[in-house]
Amino acid sequence: MLFFVCYGEVFFCFPLSFWYHTVCIFLFFMANIQHAPSQYMLNLLHILPAFADKPAHRLHALIEVNAGSKNKYEIITESGQLKLDRVGYSSLVYPFTYGAIPKTWDEDNDPLDIMIIGVEEPLVPGSLVEARIVGVMKFIDGGEVDDKIIAVLADDKRTDHIMSFEDFGKYWEKETQYFWEHYKDLKKPGSGKVEGFFGVLEAIRVLEECEDRYEKVYAPKFIES
């Protein structure tokens, strides 16, 4: 099939496949994915690095849940599709936007989680964003380490002044701790324990540890399959 383009009074004729691949290349590089065009949907959990710009503390994040939702969506690690994992057990809703960081593996055998604070408009679940690190929350869930990176949207000027999770104030810490320690009360009371909030340097250390664990624990399984 041919595709015609008019420029002034001159007509150009190209195969449709040429335009398909050209557009794919443009979109991939525009999104900083830097991956060859593919006829199959890519699983970005295994394509993108965790850091979009490490010196600037910018991460790649895949959105799973919006603030105000009781629905807990999760990206299927093996295939990349979005799945409704559960509906919340109580009236508590997520007070932040929530997602997963590519090419990381936490001790709970899932990608490292990220809480994105101060998102004014709902994001599309499954979408890719860049987020800037402002801290980390240490968390134990059912006896397993399940830490949460704390971040803001990197491309929202409204949060440019946020340099640390401490800029959200003490009440934000109390509210966030309350959510994580009580959101499963009607299923497994007392199963969640927040062990503190820490700054950017500790967050980067946790991220690097999870990147290393991904390469050692998960990547070999992925490659073998």
What does this structure look like?
With 225 residues, the protein is α+β, with helices and mostly antiparallel strands. The chain folds into two domains: 1-40, no CATH class; 51-224, Alpha-Beta Complex (Inorganic Pyrophosphatase). It has helices spanning 16-30, 170-182, 200-224, and strands spanning 2-7, 10-15, 51-53, 58-65, 71-75, 82-87, 97-100, 113-116, 128-141, 144-145, 148-153, 192-198. The strands form three sheets. A five-stranded mixed beta barrel has the order 4-7-8-11-9. The chain has a two-stranded antiparallel ribbon with strand order 1-2. Mean pLDDT is 87; it is low at 1-12 and 16-30.
- Termini separation: 36 Å
User: Helix coverage percent of residues?
Assistant: 10-25%
CATH-level-4 superfamily name of the largest domain: Inorganic pyrophosphatase
Weakly predicted, low-confidence segments: 1-12, 16-30
Sequence of secondary-structure elements: EEHEEEEEEEEEHEH
What is the C-level CATH assignment of the largest domain? Alpha Beta
Question: What are the defining features of this structure?
Answer:
single chain, 225 residues, alpha+beta, Inorganic Pyrophosphatase, 12 strands, 32% strand, disordered N terminus
